[in-house]
Amino acid sequence: MPPISDARRVTLQTLLRLVRSEQRRRTMLLQRYDWTLHARPTQLPPPGDWKIWLILAGRGFGKTRAGAETIRRWVQSGQCQRIALIAQTIDEARSVMVEGNSGLLSVSAPWEGAVYEAQKKHVIWPNGTLATLYGAEHPEQLRGPQFDGAWIDEFAKFPDPEAILTQLFLSLRLGRHPRALITTTPRPIPALRALLTRQDTVVTRGSTFENADNLSQSFLDLARRQFEGMPLGDQELYGEMIEPPGTLWTSALIEERRLSQTPSLVRIVIGVDPALSHNAHSDETGIVVTGQDAQGSAYILADHSMQAPPEEWMRRVGEIYQAFSAHQVVLETNAGGDLLPALFKRFAPGISLKLVRAQKSKWTRAEPIALLYRQRKVFHVGTFPELERQMLTYTPHTAQSPDRMDALVWALSILCFEPYSVASVWSF
Predict the structure, then answer these.
(1) Alpha helices in 173-325 (DSSP H)
(2) Backbone angles phi, psi at 20, to 5 degrees
(3) What's the topology of domain 252-427?
(4) Residue of 390, 190, 211, 187 whose CA lies nearest to 284
(5) Phi, psi of 101 (to 5 degrees)
(6) Is the predicted pLDDT of residue 117 greater than 80, yes or no?
(7) Bridge partner residues of 258 (DSSP)
(8) 3-state secondary structure of 150
(9) What are φ and ψ of residue 348, in 5° steps?
(10) What is the CATH architecture of 41-242?
(11) pLDDT tens digit string along 40-60?
């Protein structure tokens, strides 16, 4: 074999350097767009069979990047082919979720082929997947379309977040397991509280400072100097839900004491806050089931509150009494007086009924019960969205009667502060 000339050797070495340089460039490019190499664990989708992934985090946490990368992952895996992108306005959806520094177009590799078609208000990929933009100010636009995935950004500032969720959940009906990602800095709004109580919601929490490596040091210094230690800082920097002033319960008080299974109980009490009228504007009858273990801890077991005529809710109380093998029904008699025991005897025979009469305000009656929560003596077995919404929003100035909360307060007052005595009940 003839020797390689110096010129040819130089040419081969040059080609080899070019090949290696190109390999390094491609490797660096692949690494640049490999989100798993750059994401913090809290920015990656959690495991499990969830329907809603709710990211509650401070400003600058990286919520938008997590949202865009999750959509990108759904598209690449084929998990989703019809996606809703929802911001407060269409312009925000475009400028933040699609074209922003951490939006879909910025995080997607050039070879993935994501294209934003402004006239049609959607992003399209070569595999045919469409992500359509919507503004929260027009929730009715979600009527008709159907999706297998959705991303909602800054949900807590929407003008009517309940309407958006209602329309979206009715539209998430494609595929085997449609899912929604919601990224937001929290605010104490009922719609967000309701999401937190859903069993199919997985919550990720995080602070601004977790993403310090990617944020301006001057911004971080200003944030600490002006907002740290203040309620606004807790919300905007640490992603904490700041409850309205003057409430007895907080989301944390309930969430930290939530159980999935019922322990062994020695006593069951059902609290009833009755409504005697029945029309479109009538209050509900609060019906809350509670239990107590041998150590004295209390448990919220069920909320069967309903809007119904007296004979119907009384029959229902009787059924619940039997189903739970309850020991007592605690009934407030301010509205019905002596009529209620007689009606119970007719419509729900066989129960032990304790009659109570409210002589103090709802707030005053509820204060010692809220204290039990702070003392870690009350736990929720499962989730009770409407009951918990009343607990988290009730103040002395609340206009609507918190019937579910009142039933809970009556039941726990008897369960925790009055020893059970056969002499204290009416038996039918």
Answers:
(1) 190-197, 217-227, 231-236, 251-255, 310-323
(2) -65, -40
(3) Nucleotidyltransferase; domain 5 (3.30.420)
(4) 390
(5) -60, -30
(6) yes
(7) 380
(8) strand
(9) -140, 65
(10) 3-Layer(aba) Sandwich (3.40)
(11) 999 999 998 899 999 999 999
Residues in the chain: 428
Tokens 């025991």, residue located: 341
Is the pLDDT at 107 greater than 80? The verdict is yes
Band of pLDDT at residue 317, cut at 50, 70 and 90? very high
Tokens of 232: 């606004």
Nearest to 275 by CA among 381, 407, 122: 407
Pairing of strands 82-87, 286-292: unpaired
Are residues 357 and 332 in contact, defined by beta-carbon separation less than 8 angstroms? yes
Going by C-alpha positions, the residue among 312, 306, 406 that lies closest to residue 357 is: 406
Global pTM?
Answer: 0.60
**Amino acid at the residue 272:** V
Strand partners, 271: 288, 330
Cα Rg of the chain, angstroms = 29
Give pLDDT, residue 304.
97
> Of 21-30, 241-250, 332-341, 372-381, which range is least confident?
21-30
pLDDT (0 to 100) of residue 19: 74
Q: What is the pLDDT of residues 254-290, one digit of tens each?
A: 888 889 899 999 999 999 999 877 666 678 899 999 9
| Neighbouring-strand partners of residue 202 | 53
Please state, as a whole number, how many other Cβ atoms lie within 10 Å of the Cβ of residue 113: 11
Distance CA(271)–CA(409), nearest Å, equals: 8
The residue ranges of every structural domain in the chain are 41-242, 252-427
Q: What is the 3 state secondary structure string of 218-255?
A: HHHHHHHHHHCCCHHHHHHCCCCCCCCCCCCCCHHHHH
Q: How far from the centroid of its chain's Cα atoms is residue 258's Cα?
A: 14
Same fold, 41-242 and 252-427: no
Residue type, 311: E
Consecutive H or E run containing 268: strand 267-273
User: H helices of 250-395, where?
Assistant: 251-255, 310-323, 339-347, 362-374, 385-393
- Written as six digits, the tokens of 300 are 């919220």
CA nearest 171: which of 198, 194, 192, 152? 152
Is residue 158 within 8 A of residue 88, CB to CB? The reply is yes
Distance CA 283, CA 306 (A): 9
Distance CA 34, CA 108 (A): 10
